[in-house]
Amino acid sequence: MTVQPLLCAALAAVLLAAPTALALDAAEMKKLLEIIDDRQRNGGDYKSLAYLEQKEKDKADTVREALVYRRDADDKLMILFSKPKGEAGKGYLRLDKNLWSYDPNVGKWERRTERERIAGTDSRRADFDESRLAEEYEPTYEGEEALGKFKVHKLSLQARSGIDVAYPVIKLWVDTATSNILKRQEFALSGRLMRTLYYPKWQKLFSESKSAEVWYPQEIRIYDEVEKANSTVILIKSVDLRALEANIFTKAWLESKSR
């Protein structure tokens, strides 16, 4: 008997014995998206201090400081910029699924789309808001693969009919061990890749209003796939889950902070 047939037989035995990854079915994918959403949802109020570091081609790097307020029970969101001085008092307010921006220099509110670049950076409203993947998208399983040292589920998401989102197609790489998103790509309806995002650091803290832990990304690295030299890093420096003022999510409240 020659050596080659023996090696082939041994290799076949190993391959047959090796466990194969099973694709997630529709119910399992929906459950995974619901877990991702729930882990980031407080059920009460949320306040964070964020830094946005922006790189643009042929421009000096800029750093902005913002306070982000959320009331997840009512789907409300406010972003109020505090630094630099020229940006202080500018903000965004999400009410009744409408996004509004305010500029104290002109004293005017303007309605914005989901594709709005927050303060001219590569970030979007969804990068600061609670996660609604299970509500807004239908998933398709693309396989289990390696992302660096991590084993991940790769999902392709298609926006549900009638839902207003920044990008109708998303691809997600989700850590099989923690269910945290590690990478996200967003596509236009034409199929063109628009943004790539990485989530290298996640943090958790206990929420009294939820009686469970809440997860948030400490760092989001956003790469503009259209203007290749542009990128934004969002750093979440602190998170506070205590109750906020009752009237905070109003245009009048935001305007008062710029006076």
TrEMBL record:
UniProt cross-references to Pfam families, sorted A to Z: LolA_like (PF17131)
Limits of the Uncharacterized protein TP-0789 domain: 74-255
Keyword Transmembrane helix set for record: no
Signal peptide: 1-23
Entry keywords, A to Z: Lipoprotein, Signal
Keyword Lyase in annotation: no
Gene3D superfamilies per record: Lipoprotein localisation LolA/LolB/LppX
Protein name in UniProt: Outer membrane lipoprotein-sorting protein
Species this protein is from: Stigmatella ashevillensis
Lineage, uppermost ranks: Bacteria, Pseudomonadati, Myxococcota, Myxococcia, Myxococcales
